Amino acid sequence: MIKVSNLQKSYKSNQVLKGISFHVDEGEVVAIIGPSGSGKSTLLRCLNFLEKPNEGHIEIGGIFVDTAKATKKEIHQLRLQTSMVFQHYNLFKNITALKNVAHPLRVTKKLDKKKAEEIGRHLLEQVGLSNKADHYPISLSGGQQQRVGIARALAVNPNAILFDEPTSSLDPEWVGEVLRVISRIADKEKTMIIVTHEMNFAREVADRVIFMDDGFIVEQGTPEEVFDYPANDRTKKFLRDYQRQITGKTDNKMEKFAIV
For the chain, give me the number of helices (H) and strands (E)? Predict the structure, then answer.
């Protein structure tokens, strides 16, 4: 379970997160949507202290941290509860796909090379890349690199996986394959928070959707509640603008994302 209370983050005079509070139940998939600059990615990065919050409390997997007073030990313990899939893959370019997946097992779990690579091969198979184990990232497509990143995130069996716009850097032809892999993980009831601009995917895969704007959580609810019956005027405008952008129409109901 993830519980966040009054999370605040500023960069000098620019307050990016303005008292964020929410929870994610075990096995729940929460999608965070909203316009660029609303604080979505900053929120995700604050959860594992890639960005240090100025104030607030975070609890993940039973580890509780007062962000303003957190010690290095507490931050380390909190980070062990999650793994992250980044926008730009963040793979080590000088080692193979298999070694990228095995690396966190050797570093955080202290497994020997043979065991770590055995688990790594199994995870690459899960994301459809068993035949790419010995390939370097430069020889992989963007979608394949992102799937390696997902396998790496799964390797340490975290309490939750954080996805920071996992398709934003991909060419359109590779988006579907990554979304299908994430959907299969969601089917296994893995706790996940997904920051995404893929509205139809959020509708399909999420148990709950959070809409953020200007550093606040403006609205949250089931996909049906948020996408079909939004209560807040800002949410309504965002969804209308999104619909107009992708279809040229203003119908509030978006075509369902087809996972095949």
Answer: 9, 10
Domain extents in the chain? 2-257
Contact 205, 31 (CB under 8 A): yes
Contact between 55 and 11 (Cβ < 8 Å): no
Q: Please give the model's pTM, rounded to 2 decimal places.
A: 0.91
Distance CA 143, CA 260 (A): 16
What is the rounded distance in angstroms from the CA atom of residue 106 to the CA atom of residue 211? 37
How many residues are given for the chain? 260
> Could you read off the pLDDT of 176-199 as tens digits, one per residue?
999 999 999 988 889 999 999 999
Contacts 24+ apart (CB under 8 A), 216-220: 216/18, 216/19, 216/20, 217/20, 217/21, 217/22, 218/34, 220/22
Q: Are 97 and 166 in contact (CB under 8 A)?
A: no
Residues 113, 164, 88: CA angle, nearest 5 degrees = 65
Fold of 2-257: Rossmann fold (3.40.50)
- The rounded distance, in Å, linking the Cα atoms of 60 and 48 is 10
C-alpha 258/C-alpha 183 separation (Å) is: 11
pLDDT of residue 248: 64
Looking up tokens 């590779």, which residue turns up? Answer: 174
Order of strands, sheet of 216-221, starting from the edge strand that comes earlier in the sequence: 82-85, 160-164, 192-195, 29-33, 208-213, 216-221
Rg (C-alpha) for the chain, rounded Å, is 18
Sign of CA dihedral 180, 186, 191, 195: positive
E-assigned strands of the chain? 2-11, 14-24, 29-33, 55-60, 63-66, 82-85, 160-164, 192-195, 208-213, 216-221
254: confidence class by pLDDT, cuts 50, 70, 90: very low
